[in-house]
Amino acid sequence: MDMNQYLGVFIEESREHLQNINDQLMCFEKNTADLGYVNEIFRSAHTLKGMSATMGFDDLAQLTHKMENVLDAVRNHQLDVHTEVLDALFESVDALEIMVQSISEGGDGQLDVKLLIQKLQRIVAEEPVAQHEASSIEYDELVQTLLSQTADQGFNAFKITVQLERTCLLKAARAYMVFDVLEQAGDVIKSAPTVQDIEQEKFESSFIVILVTNESQEKLQASIMEVSEVESVKIAAVPVKKETEMEELVSPEIAAAIQEVTVSAPSKSPVEEKRQPSNNKTIRVNIDRLDSLMNLFEELVIDRGRLEQISKELNNSELDETVERMSRISGDLQTIILNMRMVPVETVFNRFPRMVRQLSKDLGKQIELQLVGADTELDRTVIDEIGDPLVHLLRNAVDHGIEMPQARLKNGKNEKGTIRLKAYHSGNHVFIDLEDDGAGINREKVLQKALDRGIIDGKTAETLTDKQVYELIFASGFSTAEQISDVSGRGVGLDVVKNTIESLGGSVTIDSNEGYGSRFSIQLPLTLSIISALLVQMSEERYALPLSSIIETAIVQPKEVMHVHGQKVIDFRGAIIPLIDLKELFTVPNSVQGDHYSVVIVKKGEKTAGLIVDSFIGQQEIVLKSLGHYLPGVFAISGATILGDGQVALIIDCNALIK
User: Fold this and answer.
1) Which of 42, 148, 459, 547 has the fewest CB atoms within 10 Å of its CB?
2) How many CB atoms lie within 10 A of CB 561?
3) Residue 590 in 3-state DSSP?
4) Is 68 a catalytic residue?
5) How far is 198 from 149, CA to CA, in rounded Å?
6) pLDDT per position as a tens digit, 328-358
7) Is 46 a catalytic residue?
8) Direct distance between the N- and C-terminal alpha carbons of the chain, in angstroms, rounded to an integer
9) Do 591 and 583 touch, CB atoms closer than 8 A?
């Protein structure tokens, strides 16, 4: 069988399982008493082992198998959890990630893991699986009573130990088939592990059942061995006390319960699921196909705008009705396509707890990473690009932001520092804030470094505000680190951070309070393709304003306009807001002031401003197109769009206009 056709699915699912292992390990480290985390880790590791073995990646399968042994010892209370255990498991996950990454890049996934395997073997002395996995069944009062009653009726009670082949992948399916054989021969009254654990594959390769039957041992042995991938079967008679010997020992509650006790075969298994309708309706789609779908739909949006304009010009009722229906359907289609591309930022955030744990350990610091709003969704294109900038910012916060525990205690702080990564929606943008309660940014130190490197001159330095000084750390090659480290000093690589974010149509700002911490705020567009906009006219030119930035439109009389320090302002609902004349800003030719001002009230966070235009055209869905490499960094213009009549309208970046 050619397994290459399943390689893409294997890589994606392996990454999902490794991420789950990482997440659960982080949680387990904080609460080692909760073995639920261990069971989750075990399930993911076990699935990964089976997938790896099937695909022929032996190093992956071997390492996950050794991890399972450690995890199994932990969940069976045979191993105390300490730092060495957790570090070995984290180290194993690192190795597994390296192997999966190698496979995704076309490699063979091989890695020398002998030393790591030896470390795992030293942690837990490996025993034969059957000794700790399918241990002897405890015959409680209820079981003994059931056995005694069946013995009096002439039935046999057998303890049956079934060993599956170690290479068996669908263990739950094989167990289901064994139970099916047994239930045709008699009644299963107990199993170890439990039926639920067998259903969920919480066993290595063996299990035990107690069967009441009138079949012979030989016939049972032959019937079970007919099931594929059964390696061996051991059947032994169960010693049973007579019912008369048990009467005095049976409580009324147990006696009543005996009439209702039944133990059934595993109810859910891969075999049975094939017979039942599947509840899993998720499919994996290559992002390139979604990109192609989006490109085609963008063209459809442009043509839709053209049809709407033609319909208005012809004033044909039937055409109007058809175009209106097409617009409504295409609008629904647009929502579906955009939602298909939206991905929670947790796909990026999830890698950070482990990274911060390791960095803080390497640096001898105590740091808590708080993640807020991980379910906030972003376009897949933005998600793919935002990871590296956030890694830069986090590494800087860990290394140069959070102080050493002794320094924090000396300054009256908790010895454990806190880094908070928060994502949230605001209008047609997503904001990602990275805050730390560390040392903050030293204004004088930054200024001196900027002067030393010739980034600014002495005269300019005297006029800069705190915020402008902080912005200097985004200059290429700027760093306040006293020495180069493997982690970084605050400022290293931040020019890359700024360039990457701005290339996505976003922006990044800094706020800091020396001695108390810093905050980096990243603003990103929700999507890079289709947006709702208000079209406005200025002389003979048309512009588009994103609807998400607009509060409302207004007509303002000249007498209502005031001047403060040379700036036009108006009283808008009790607040004084500045007016920006877009015709002056963009030097629109043939501009003539009318007898009133048409004003678009826009917002950026808590700040507002009024944009003066000639007239309002109306709302329209537009396709955002980049200005390309020939027109980079045009102030307050985020792109362009093609209108229904074929003309081009520039899209105004309202956030750039509000300071």
Assistant:
1) 459
2) 16
3) coil
4) yes
5) 27
6) 888 888 778 878 888 889 888 988 998 898 8
7) yes
8) 62
9) yes
